[in-house]
Design a protein that fits this description.
- The protein is 20% helix and 28% strand.
- It is built from two helices and nine strands; from the N terminus they run H-E-E-E-E-E-E-H-E-E-E.
- Strands 1, 2, 3, 4, 5, 6, 7, 8 and 9 form a nine-stranded antiparallel beta sheet that branches.
- The longest helix is centred in the first third of the chain and has 21 residues.
């Protein structure tokens, strides 16, 4: 009987701890709305959904880390350090341009709107606006 009481108590403790994990502590940083994986769906007024996914620009954000493909080159860096994004340097004359400003992606993301599974990025410094769609996990 004592063993059954201990098991029941452990189960209640486990349930209580699990519910604490699901609720962020007051003042804990919230995930940014642009966290996740994004694939370019529209560039300016042009739909890119018919273009193969491996040719379309996209990126993922996890915490302060950004990485992705700009239509020609792979890139990665930190959102909290402007100018830290580095990329490979292949030449691709027919590549789809990346609308995200990689010189300061965090500032550009702050100007974006997240509408459900769409990230609407305004044009900036000679770059056309674009719409990214969140990829399923």
């Amino acid at each position: 009987m004592k063993r059954l009481a201990r098991l029941a108590g452990a189960g209640l403790l486990g349930a209580a701890l699990a519910s604490c994990e699901a609720t962020p502590a007051p003042g804990a940083p919230q995930a940014a709305p642009w966290e996740g994986r994004w694939l370019l769906a529209e560039l300016g007024q042009r739909s890119l959904r018919e273009v193969a996914a491996q040719r379309r620009p996209g990126f993922s954000v996890q915490g302060a880390v950004i990485q992705g493909f700009d239509g020609c080159n792979q890139f990665n860096g930190r959102l909290d350090q402007p100018g830290s994004v580095v990329a490979t340097r292949r030449a691709c004359p027919d590549a789809i341009p990346m609308p995200l400003d990689l010189a300061d992606p965090l500032a550009h993301l702050h100007a974006a709107r997240v509408e459900g599974n769409r990230l609407v990025l305004p044009g900036r410094e000679g770059r056309p606006g674009g719409v990214f769609e969140r990829e399923a996990k």
